[in-house]
Write a structure and sequence with these properties.
Layout: H1 10-24, H2 29-69, H3 71-90, H4 96-103, H5 115-130, H6 141-154, E1 160-167, E2 173-181, E3 184-186, E4 195-200
Antiparallel strand pairs: 1-2, 1-4, 2-3
Helix pairs in contact: 1-2, 2-3, 3-6, 5-6
Length: 202
């Protein structure tokens, strides 16, 4: 396992504090304030960089371990990762309906005799990928639903993507995206209680 770290190494912080303290006696109050502000900003930046490094190491460790244990599943996750990346970029460049049309596969196979097992496996692998919370791999419903839609369709499993909204307890709008198959929510922990605003395919 990778040890989590959210702050710079202790020796870096001690050296920086010692440097600021040594300069304090030879500087005016305003200079000391400026130096301390620079130090605080540097601390924040180093902390963020440290988080990125730790997430990168954790993601790499998971990827190598997964590839070693189950190469076929690792290849499938890599394909999913590619589509998550494509979706994350295209959502800034073109309307959602056009993106979803692009994600619809042109070739399909006959559905499995046990579609529930296929559905559960694909959802599990995609959720593992999005749970890494690294770069654009985040556990976000609007990424999960379209990518899962594509890979289920490749297995011959027909679904629809639904987008809905509702008001939370504070009165603010809350949105969600999920899949529907055979008229029922698919691969959701509980039935979504949202007003559907868009469905694909219509």
């Amino acid at each position: 396992s990778v040890r989590k770290a959210t702050t710079p190494p202790s020796w870096v912080m001690r050296a920086a504090r010692a440097r600021v303290s040594s300069l304090s006696g030879r500087m005016s109050t305003s200079e000391v304030v400026v130096k301390r502000r620079v130090f605080d900003k540097a601390k924040v930046i180093l902390g963020k960089l440290n988080k990125i490094v730790q997430k990168s190491l954790r993601a790499a460790s998971l990827a190598f371990g997964f590839a070693y244990r189950d190469p076929s599943a690792a290849l499938l996750v890599a394909r999913m990762a590619g589509w998550v990346a494509v979706l994350s970029v295209l959502i800034r460049l073109m309307p959602l309906p056009r993106i979803l049309r692009l994600m619809r596969p042109k070739t399909r196979v006959r559905p499995s005799a046990q579609p529930s097992e296929v559905e559960a496996r694909l959802a599990h692998l995609l959720d593992l990928l999005l749970a890494t919370d690294f770069l654009f791999f985040t556990p976000t419903c609007w990424k999960r639903a379209p990518v899962l839609y594509r890979f289920l369709a490749l297995e011959g499993i027909e679904t629809r993507i639904l987008f809905g909204v509702r008001k939370d307890t504070g009165g603010a709008l809350d949105g969600h995206a999920w899949l529907e198959a055979r008229g029922r929510p698919l691969l959701e922990a509980s039935a979504p209680d949202y007003t559907v605003t868009y469905a694909f395919p219509a």
